[in-house]
Amino acid sequence: MSEKKQTLAMQTWIAIGIVIIFVLVGTLAGVLFPGTIFESVVDSSIGKFFNILGLIKNNYINILESIAVVVFIGILYYVLSVLIKIIMNKSPRGLTLSILMTSILKFLAMIIALILILSAWNVPTPTILAGAGIIGLAVSFGAQGLLEDVFAGLSIIFEKQFTVGDFVEVADFRGQVMEIGARNTRIKNINGNILIIANSDIRKIVNLSEELSFAISEISIEYSSDLDKVEKIITDSLPRIKELIPTIKEGPVYSGVEALGDSAVIIRVIAHCEEKDRINIRRMLNKELKKVLDENGIKIPFPQMVIHQANKE
């Protein structure tokens, strides 16, 4: 265990120990120090907060009602969330909606449980709700960013811009949508990194799952190679390569000469595939094309540098 974790653990145990001491003193002051000034001081101070036995004894009905409320609301939330998942999780868009609806349901369950618990303790909830309405109105002016995020999330879902499971590119970050929440969207890239971006900050996004993606393989050949022969060999080998890589949806096709490099002619082969298979297919294309070139004696040149030396007279 690191020194930082050890320090944190020690601080946690110290805090727990202090709380236990307060609870014991507040609960047992009448037993340990009966009829003394210390007892009265404890009862009028920490005893009000840490006399657990006295609190339970004097308010056991309210405590039982509060526990019943929490259990009932918890069971109701669990049943409704399961029903939402069963009904909605039949499509990627339904999965996205179920996540959003479950998030809203959890928030409503917490609010309702809080109101019922306050009622069980005889707190005037109508007055609190009226005050909360005024406070909520004031807070709403300072929470415009939160509202923007929520409405942007609803717009993403109902306009079908993208759903959970889609591959997207946003802010130069390319990955799979893991979650669309009320405020944030989570996107995971191939390296396992997760981008958490506010819904209102998603201004421009590329949905890579609506159409097939391109797996591109670029191979370099020597300038001295017979280009027509190379193109024919590659073209004839593409059907066999397609059989070796079944995840290719369309192609592969020979695209032609991509560039004339410093020491090689660069040719390109393209295959259409699902975005999730793009990188793996590109690697497999590189492997199979390299094998084809080796089998036919076509060399892939090493990088070369030509140096011209001036003549000194």
Could you describe the 3D structure shown?
- This protein is α+β, with helices and mostly antiparallel strands and 313 residues long.
- Among the domains are: 1-50; 154-207, SH3 type barrels (Roll), CATH 2.30.30; 213-295, Alpha-Beta Plaits.
- 57% of the residues lie in helices and 17% in strands.
- It contains nine helices and eight strands.
- It has helices at 3-32, 37-44, 47-50, 52-88, 92-120, 125-142, 144-158, 227-244, 278-295; strands at residues 167-170, 173-180, 184-188, 194-198, 205-207, 213-221, 250-260, 265-273.
- The strands form two sheets. The chain has a five-stranded antiparallel β-sheet with strand order 4-3-2-1-5. A three-stranded antiparallel β-sheet has the order 6-8-7, covered by helices on one side.
- A hairpin with a 2-residue loop joins strand 1 and strand 2.
- Helix 4 (52-88) runs antiparallel to helix 5.
- It is elongated and about 110 Å long.
- 17% of the residues are buried.
- The mean pLDDT is 77.
